[in-house]
């Protein structure tokens, strides 16, 4: 039986929230990839995951537009323990305002060395997913609080400024 | 963002990606280096320092968090630590959501716990049926012989008494006094 509280998520569990210790696994996976495959390999992994594993979400976004995007992110963060997030839908964009990133919070609480590129994963993954759905994505901030913006192409955003994504601090 | 709610889904997807990029050797290295030595270093520390009581502390906590419905049973004595999974929360997530990007997801458990327990001085007896059911017995590395008889450690909680447990050994992957994911006997 899947979680009835998460109908807007493509993959559902029987419990309402995930286990935060899995953030240790995500952080360790990124470190291993960066050491073994470099930045290009890590980026390729995230982009392929965005187009592959997340294909059901991309289809939801493609069909449902920005309303589907906002519904997804509300459901997503409701299932992430410790997240403090506001999702704001505007006519041409959705802003996901992350006041407290659950991953960074838990990694810090657990005394883990956070991969300094950690926050860039949200851009590489998110932009690949947005592109697959005919949208654009930009990211600013990081290291615990940030803003993801998903928009229609006519929003006319400038190219992503990678300097606008902060390094994650442990 | 990659989240923890569907961790088992993208974790399994990652195994398949690694295999395509770097073959089986890269998957093995990932389980040992990233999961055993980095992500799960709290488990390593508890078990290396505490032995079987450390196993109880680690798996008692992590399984209660991952499987609040208690689809597992833990048994332990001075010479053995045993887990019976009647409804693995991790494999169950994949089965319920129809996810498969890697040959045998269940191998990841031996992939990281095998080397971890070798470093702590233990060997593993294990069988899994690929349907979210399996059992594990960890004993000091000096232990010899084959699998203990059903019920001899876990009593009636032994998964091998479950009607869903295959009677045909060909449907099981089996490890005996092992520490390496490639020590599998089919």
- DSSP strand count of chain A: 4
The amount of beta strand of chain B, in percent, is 15-25%
Main sheet: strands, sense, barrel of chain B: 5 strands, antiparallel
User: Termini of chain B, distance in Å?
Assistant: 38 Å
Q: What is the overall shape of chain B?
A: globular
Q: Biggest β-sheet of chain A: count, sense, barrel? A: 4 strands, antiparallel
Radius of gyration of chain A: 15 Å
Mean pLDDT of chain B: 95
Mean pLDDT of chain A, as a whole number? 95
Structural commentary:
The complex is a heterodimer of chains A (170) and B (186). Chain A contains 4 helices and 4 strands; from the N terminus they run H-H-E-E-H-H-E-E. Chain A has 170 residues and is α+β, with helices and mostly antiparallel strands. Chain A has one domain: Muramoyl-pentapeptide Carboxypeptidase, domain 2 (2-Layer Sandwich), CATH 3.30.1380. Chain A has a 4-stranded antiparallel β-sheet with strand order 1-2-4-3. In chain A, helix 1 packs parallel to helix 4 (120-132). The longest helix of chain A has 30 residues, at 22-51. The radius of gyration of chain A is 15 Å and the shape is globular. With 186 residues, chain B is α+β, with helices and mostly antiparallel strands. Chain B has one domain (7-183): Muramoyl-pentapeptide Carboxypeptidase, domain 2. Helix content of chain B is 44%, strand content 16%. Chain B has a 5-stranded antiparallel β-sheet, covered by helices on one side. In chain B, strand 3 and strand 4 form a beta hairpin. In chain B, helix 1 runs antiparallel to helix 2 (41-66), helix 1 runs parallel beside helix 4 (107-120) and helix 2 (41-66) packs across helix 4. The longest helix of chain B has 33 residues, at 7-39. Chain B is globular and about 45 Å long. Chain B starts with 6 loop residues before the first helix and ends in an 8-residue tail after the last strand. The model of chain B has no long low-confidence stretch (mean pLDDT 95). Chain A binds chain B through residues 2, 6, 9-15, 17-29, 31-32, 36-37, 41, 45, 48-49, 52-53, 76, 79-81, 101-103, 110, 121-122, 125-126, 148, and chain B through 1-7, 9-11, 13-14, 17, 21-22, 26, 29-30, 33-35, 38-40, 42, 62, 65-66, 68-69, 89, 92-93, 96-97, 99, 101.
């Amino acid at each position: 039986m899947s979680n009835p509280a998460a109908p807007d998520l493509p993959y559902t569990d029987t419990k309402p929230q995930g286990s935060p210790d899995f953030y240790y696994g995500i952080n360790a996976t990124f470190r291993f990839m960066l050491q073994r495959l470099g930045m290009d390999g890590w980026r390729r992994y995230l982009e392929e995951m965005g187009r592959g594993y997340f294909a059901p979400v991309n289809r939801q976004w493609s069909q449902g537009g920005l309303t589907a995007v906002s519904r997804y992110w509300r459901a997503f963060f409701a299932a992430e323990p410790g997240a403090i997030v506001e999702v704001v839908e505007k006519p041409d964009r959705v802003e996901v305002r992350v006041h407290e990133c659950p991953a960074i919070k838990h990694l810090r609480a657990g005394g883990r060395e956070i991969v300094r590129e950690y926050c860039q994963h949200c851009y590489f993954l998110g932009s690949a997913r947005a592109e697959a759905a005919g949208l654009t994505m930009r990211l600013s901030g990081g290291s615990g609080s940030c803003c993801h913006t998903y928009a229609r192409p006519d929003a006319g955003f400038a190219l992503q400024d990678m300097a606008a994504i902060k390094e994650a601090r442990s | 963002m990659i989240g923890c709610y569907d961790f088992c889904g993208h974790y399994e997807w990652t195994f398949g990606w690694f295999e395509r990029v770097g073959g089986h050797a890269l998957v093995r290295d990932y389980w040992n280096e990233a999961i055993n030595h980095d992500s799960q270093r709290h488990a390593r520390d508890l078990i290396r320092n505490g032995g079987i009581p450390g196993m109880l502390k680690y798996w008692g906590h992590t399984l209660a968090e991952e499987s609040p419905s208690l689809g597992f049973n833990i048994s332990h004595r001075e010479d053995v630590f045993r887990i019976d999974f009647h409804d693995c929360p991790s494999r169950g997530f994949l089965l319920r959501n129809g996810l498969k990007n890697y040959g045998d997801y269940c191998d990841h458990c031996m992939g990281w716990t095998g080397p971890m327990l070798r470093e702590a001085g233990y060997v593993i007896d294990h069988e899994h049926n690929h349907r979210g059911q399996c059992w594990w017995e960890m004993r000091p590395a000096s232990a010899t012989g084959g699998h203990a008889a059903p019920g001899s450690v876990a009593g009636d909680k032994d998964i091998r008494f479950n009607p869903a447990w295959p009677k045909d050994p060909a449907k099981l992957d089996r490890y005996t006094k092992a520490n390496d994911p490639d020590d599998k006997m089919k």
